[in-house]
């Protein structure tokens, strides 16, 4: 059974009096442990697809299955719980909580899950060592570089060991060297810890590193290799 | 032309009205000054009755014109020598027990005079009623007139209305009724015992009846009345008030 | 950590938070002060009506207090006085005879209200002896002394040592008149008393009015004036014959209304002030929530439930409420204490206002009452909860997808 399965999924947004078809009758399945890039020009439906997989959005038509469970139609609190347990998010502009320290940001999801403080800390120390962030635990996001912030975001996404980590243009705000490092890191986590990654990008560098590239155009699947 | 006609018709009417007005005012003036005349000297017995006590006083009084009046208690013994002097709008009392003269302040003018149902204001203002009120004939029959007095605008009066019942021949008052500003009857004065004294026909007994307290009254009985006595202005002095001649 | 997050969020926009906090602190402190001063005025009013004249309750015959009819008098009995002495609630009582008449000094004269009293008893009930501006209070055994109000003294041109004549009609219809020597002059600030009241020896007035051994009233001072009504009701069945015990509320019904309406007015003032404060807080919190739309989107995306978001925002408002409550109460109590012990004298610019039978003195003087602190405090928390609820709900209902896209 695939970890993620989209069955004839469409997403239609109203835009004024018109309707925009962001995702058009798309079917896709992703197995656990894959390292997948959603590629395609901007407006091709990459972000919408990620939101659908990430239970942030509901399909207009079709079904989204996550870890053997159909997602659509659940109320917000339940979706929130699902996201907390199964999905880690990495955003283009990091989106760390500015009033929390790096460590607190990273352990936030664990806190929401009710994990005791000592175990949270332990996990954060592990992750920070792994991600090359050791010693930066007590820094505020504003005192970190873009690459460091994004690595804290990865730590946050991975802390609860989710079934899948979704990343929307994770390198878009980084320079090429930081992007390279970040991608290498994610690839390593994918290999060593078996974390499933699905991320969107139109950066050829990122795409070249992917194990699987799903290319979208006008909300449809153009190629999958 | 119209104005001329109007004048022709209305002038005689106006004239009779003015005449009537003058006559009424003159009648009231005569009645109000029946006990004083130009000058007078009297002896009065006054009986005051209330729900709690009844008192009997004997007094002697002098008056000159409208503005001067002196009265002194002769009996009972406890109050002998207590005297009141009125000159124009001022009223003084003399108290022999403490040998002091007290001026009645304006705020106390409504108070009882010598414990009776007559107020200090009655002493001061009664003599000016004919000047302060406008009069109107309410009804007339063979024996009597009923005359209503309403205060002139801005006149410093205490009554809202006064109604006189006067006997025509001889001219004496029978009943005077006093109404307050809300036109409620508050006091009646009845005149009885009409006799001819010193050439004048006047009622010798005057009974003041407060309407709100039916069990109370003040009766003044004139025992002696002399008119046109020889009195000078100087007689009405604080010195005289104290009874020192 | 939710707590920490909430607390840190408060300090995010330091200037805005401080402004909001100071508005809350100042409004609650001023409210506590205003209520304290309001209570002080009420107490002054009640004291001016009772402790300078009536006493807290008065025992008199029949309808004496309605028409002050001289003949509605009575004789005190040994049994009655022993009973009054036995009551632990009673702090003092004073036997009185009253007369209205003309008081005169040389060419000046004016109406006056004479209260025949036993000096030692009277000073236990009223505090005129504390308001003397010249001379001394009546001494026990004084046969013809008088302590007169300052306004009356001025009108008569009387000074300590002068002799006055009092004239009135005695109970037998005779003209009662006698001399009094001015012993002292009092000034309470209450025009009605200062302009007409005179204290004289009881025996002197009884003789003048030809009312030997008779009284018009016994004025009583009790421990707690606000319980005068129930005490009077308890005393009533034990009184003989025509005697009636009236509390100040019956003698001054408007005053009773004022006291009764105080709780209502207090709530109205609290409400009005806090509606204004609440709108300010609401505005601040709305702004702070709207600014963080994207952050709420992120928090919800990574798994924070709407309920937790709501709770977090409410925690923020409540902790601001708690901080300002603490500071506001301290500041308010300090200000009230200052006004209670020092106060501000306004007699230079204002004259006393008599209302409902009591007199509001031209001074700002606070009285500390628990309710005056409790109401503002509880209301502030309530206002914070209400003002926090709308933005908290707004935050909780955001769609994460939409919120994250917000710039």
Helix content range of chain B: 10-25%
Strand order of the largest sheet of chain C: 2-3-8-5-7-6
Number of domains of chain C: 2
Q: What is the name of the CATH superfamily of chain B?
A: Lipoprotein localisation LolA/LolB/LppX
What's the CATH class label of chain B?
Mainly Beta
The averaged pLDDT of chain B comes out at 82
Largest interface: A-C, 27 and 23 residues
Share in helix of chain C: 40-55%
Specify the number of helices of chain C: 15
Largest sheet of chain B: 13 strands, antiparallel
Shape of chain C: elongated
Number of domains of chain B: 1
Determine Rg of chain B (CA atoms, Å): 20 Å
What string, H for helix and E for strand, traces the elements of chain C in order?
HHEHHEEHEEHEEHEHEHEHHHHEEEEHH
Mean pLDDT of chain C: 86
Number of helices of chain B: 4
Low-confidence stretches of chain B: 1-19
CA-based shape of chain B? globular
Q: Descriptors for this entry?
A:
heterotrimer; A: 225 residues; alpha/beta; six-stranded mixed β-sheet; four-stranded antiparallel β-sheet; 7 helices; 37% helix; globular; C: 407 residues; alpha+beta; six-stranded mixed barrel; two-stranded antiparallel sheet; elongated
Short description:
Chain B is 18% helix and 45% strand.
Topology (SSEs and partners):
The complex is a heterotrimer of chains A (225), B (245) and C (407).
Chain A: E1 4-15, E2 18-30, E3 35-39, H1 46-53, E4 61-66, E5 69-70, H2 76-86, E6 87-90, H3 102-113, H4 117-130, H5 146-159, E7 164-168, H6 176-193, E8 196-200, H7 204-209, E9 212-217, E10 220-224
Helix pairs in contact in A: 3-4, 3-5, 4-5, 5-6
Chain B: H1 2-32, E1 39-49, E2 54-64, E3 68-75, E4 83-87, E5 90-95, E6 100-103, H2 120-125, H3 129-132, E7 133-140, E8 144-151, E9 161-167, E10 172-179, E11 185-197, E12 200-210, E13 217-227, H4 238-241
Antiparallel strand pairs in B: 1-2, 1-13, 2-3, 3-4, 4-5, 5-6, 7-8, 8-9, 9-10, 10-11, 11-12, 12-13
Chain C: H1 2-10, H2 14-54, E1 57-61, H3 64-67, H4 78-86, E2 90-105, E3 108-117, H5 119-125, E4 132-135, E5 145-149, H6 150-156, E6 163-169, E7 175-186, H7 191-194, E8 197-201, H8 202-208, E9 217-222, H9 228-235, E10 243-247, H10 248-251, H11 253-291, H12 293-301, H13 306-341, E11 344-345, E12 353-355, E13 358-360, E14 363-364, H14 370-396, H15 400-405
Parallel strand pairs in C: 3-8, 5-7
Antiparallel strand pairs in C: 1-9, 1-10, 2-3, 2-6, 2-9, 4-7, 5-8, 6-7, 11-14, 12-13
Helix pairs in contact in C: 1-13, 2-11, 2-13, 2-14, 11-14, 13-14
């Amino acid at each position: 059974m695939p970890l993620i399965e989209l069955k004839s999924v469409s997403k239609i947004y109203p835009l004024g009096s018109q309707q925009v078809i962001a995702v058009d009758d798309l079917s896709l399945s992703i197995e656990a442990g894959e390292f997948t890039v959603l590629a395609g020009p901007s407006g091709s439906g990459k972000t919408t697809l990620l939101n659908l997989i990430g239970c942030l959005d509901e399909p207009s038509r079709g079904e989204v299955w996550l870890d053997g469970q159909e997602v659509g139609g659940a109320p917000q609190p339940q979706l929130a719980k699902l996201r907390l347990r199964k999905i880690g998010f990495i955003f283009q502009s990091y989106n760390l909580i500015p009033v929390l320290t790096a460590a607190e940001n990273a352990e936030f999801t664990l806190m929401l899950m009710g994990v005791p403080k000592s175990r949270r800390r332990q996990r954060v120390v592990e992750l920070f060592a792994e991600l090359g962030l050791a010693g930066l635990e007590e820094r505020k996001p504003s005192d970190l570089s873009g690459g460091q912030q994004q690595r804290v975001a990865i730590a946050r996404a991975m802390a609860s060991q989710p079934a899948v980590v979704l990343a929307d243009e994770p390198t878009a705000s980084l320079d090429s060297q930081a992007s390279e490092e970040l991608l290498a890191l994610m690839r390593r986590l994918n290999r060593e810890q078996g974390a499933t990654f699905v991320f969107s990008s139109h950066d050829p560098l990122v795409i070249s590193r992917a194990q699987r590239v799903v290319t979208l155009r006008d909300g449809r699947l153009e190629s999958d290799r | 032309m119209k104005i001329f006609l109007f004048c022709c018709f209305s002038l005689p009417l106006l004239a009779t009205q003015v005449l009537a007005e003058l006559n009424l005012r003159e009648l009231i003036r005569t009645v109000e000054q029946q006990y004083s005349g130009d000058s007078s000297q009297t002896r009065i017995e006054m009986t005051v009755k209330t729900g709690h006590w009844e008192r009997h006083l004997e007094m002697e009084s002098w008056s000159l014109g409208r503005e001067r009046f002196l009265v002194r208690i002769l009996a009972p013994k406890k109050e002998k020598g207590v005297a009141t002097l009125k000159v124009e709008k001022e009223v003084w009392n003399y108290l022999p027990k403490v040998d002091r003269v007290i001026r009645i302040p304006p705020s106390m003018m409504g108070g009882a005079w010598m414990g009776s149902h007559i107020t200090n204001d009655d002493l001061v203002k009664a003599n000016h009623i004919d000047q302060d009120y406008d009069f109107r004939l309410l009804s007339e029959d063979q024996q009597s007139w009923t005359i209503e007095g309403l205060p002139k605008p801005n006149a410093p009066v205490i009554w809202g209305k006064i109604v006189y019942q006067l006997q025509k021949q001889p001219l004496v008052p029978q009943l005077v009724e006093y109404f307050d500003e809300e036109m409620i009857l508050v006091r009646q004065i009845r005149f009885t015992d009409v006799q001819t004294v010193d050439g004048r026909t006047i009622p010798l007994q005057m009974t003041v009846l407060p309407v709100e307290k039916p069990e109370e009254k003040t009766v003044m009985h004139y025992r002696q009345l002399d008119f046109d006595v020889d009195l000078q202005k100087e007689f009405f002095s604080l010195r005289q008030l104290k009874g020192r001649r | 950590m939710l707590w920490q997050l909430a607390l840190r969020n408060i300090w995010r926009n330091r200037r805005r938070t401080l402004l909001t906090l100071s508005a809350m602190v100042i409004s609650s402190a001023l409210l506590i002060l205003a209520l304290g001063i309001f209570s002080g005025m009420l107490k002054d009013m009640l004291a001016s009506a009772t402790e300078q004249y009536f006493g807290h309750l008065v025992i008199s015959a029949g309808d004496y207090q309605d028409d002050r009819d001289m003949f509605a008098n009575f004789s005190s009995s040994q049994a009655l006085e022993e009973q009054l002495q036995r009551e632990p609630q009673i702090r003092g009582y004073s036997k009185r005879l009253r007369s209205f008449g003309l008081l005169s000094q040389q060419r000046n004269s004016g109406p006056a209200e004479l209260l025949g009293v036993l000096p030692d008893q009277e000073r236990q009930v009223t505090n005129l002896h504390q308001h003397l501006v010249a001379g001394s209070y009546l001494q026990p055994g004084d046969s013809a002394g008088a302590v007169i109000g300052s306004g009356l003294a001025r009108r008569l041109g009387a000074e300590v040592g002068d002799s006055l004549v009092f004239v009135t009609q005695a109970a037998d219809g005779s003209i009662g008149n006698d001399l009094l020597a001015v012993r002292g002059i009092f000034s309470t600030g209450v025009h009605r008393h200062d302009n007409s009241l005179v204290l004289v020896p009881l025996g002197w007035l009884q003789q003048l009015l030809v009312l030997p051994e008779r009284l018009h009233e016994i004025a009583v001072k009790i421990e707690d004036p606000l319980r005068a009504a129930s005490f009077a009701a308890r005393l009533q069945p034990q009184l003989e014959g025509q005697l009636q015990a009236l509390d100040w509320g019956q003698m001054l019904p408007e005053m009773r209304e004022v006291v009764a309406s105080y709780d209502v007015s207090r709530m109205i003032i609290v409400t009005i002030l806090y509606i204004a404060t609440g709108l300010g807080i609401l505005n601040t919190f709305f702004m702070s929530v709207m600014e963080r739309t994207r952050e709420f989107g992120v928090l919800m995306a990574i798994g924070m439930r709407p309920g937790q978001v709501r709770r977090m925002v409410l925690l923020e408002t409540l902790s601001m409420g708690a901080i300002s409550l603490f500071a506001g109460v301290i500041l308010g109590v300090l200000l009230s204490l200052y006004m209670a012990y020092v106060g501000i004298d306004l007699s230079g610019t204002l004259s006393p206002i008599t209302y409902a039978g009591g007199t509001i003195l031209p001074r700002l003087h606070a009285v500390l009452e628990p309710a005056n602190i409790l109401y503002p405090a509880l209301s502030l928390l309530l206002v914070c909860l209400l003002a926090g609820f709308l933005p908290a709900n707004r935050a909780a209902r955001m769609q994460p997808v939409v919120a994250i896209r917000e710039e």
